[in-house]
Design goal:
two-stranded antiparallel sheet
């Protein structure tokens, strides 16, 4: 154990957040060229070129869940999700050709998954091999929900990539990542729930549906 998490230790400041995303970016840059080694550890492969395949699989699983299951889509939700397929495909295509590479993507980068003693040490239970920009999806949502400034944290992340990208280009990637990240998270949750106990399913069974519904803002 590495002690208390950042979220349990104190209310994270903008300086905390900047350091967290900087450390995340540094790690992403360090391992970006080691795909095979990372996947050999069991890291899920959620590269953008395969996102449409995962979209179809998640859609079918959630549409056909047993009646009463907390992640079963309603008919209206299923129709809305089907309409987003083209947007998800376009987002995946953009990320395939992005300057930012596919790399280790933390998956759920919030203060409860960062250790207070060293804000570069993370809980990687939700990690994936995925577009680098996806790592910003959760920080942006948390900061905006908490009424904190997002721009300086975003700039801190973008700066760690140096001349590889500019802020405007990174914003475009983040908009695309907002469409791929929910699908990737829903798929990994479906995998995690495959061997869940009844109590675990009751507590967490709605997670796949919750994530795909993020596609609608």
């Amino acid at each position: 154990m590495r002690g208390r998490t950042l979220g349990a230790d104190h209310e994270p400041t903008l300086d905390d957040w900047r350091l967290v995303v900087e450390r995340a970016a540094d790690l992403q840059r360090a391992v970006a060229g080691h795909r095979d080694a990372m996947l050999a550890t069991g890291l899920p492969d959620c590269a953008p070129g395969t996102v449409l395949e995962r979209f179809d699989a998640v859609y079918e699983r959630l549409r056909t869940m047993p009646v009463g299951h907390p992640s079963r889509l309603t008919d209206e939700e299923a129709a809305l999700l089907a309409d987003r397929r083209g947007s998800v495909a376009a987002a995946g295509d953009l990320l395939v050709d992005a300057a930012l590479p596919d790399t280790l993507q933390h998956g759920d980068l919030h203060p409860g998954n960062v250790f207070a003693c060293d804000r570069g040490r993370f809980d990687f239970g939700d990690a994936q091999w995925a577009p680098a920009a996806e790592v910003l999806c959760i920080p942006q949502a948390v900061l905006e929900s908490d009424g904190l400034a997002w721009q300086p944290v975003f700039e801190a992340y973008a700066d760690r990539w140096g001349d590889l990208v500019d802020p405007a280009g990174t914003r475009a990637l983040l908009r695309a990542a907002a469409l791929t990240h929910p699908i990737n998270r829903a798929e990994t949750w479906l995998g995690a729930l495959a061997e869940a106990t009844d109590d675990e399913a009751a507590d967490w069974g709605e997670a796949p549906r919750r994530h795909v519904l993020r596609l609608f803002g």
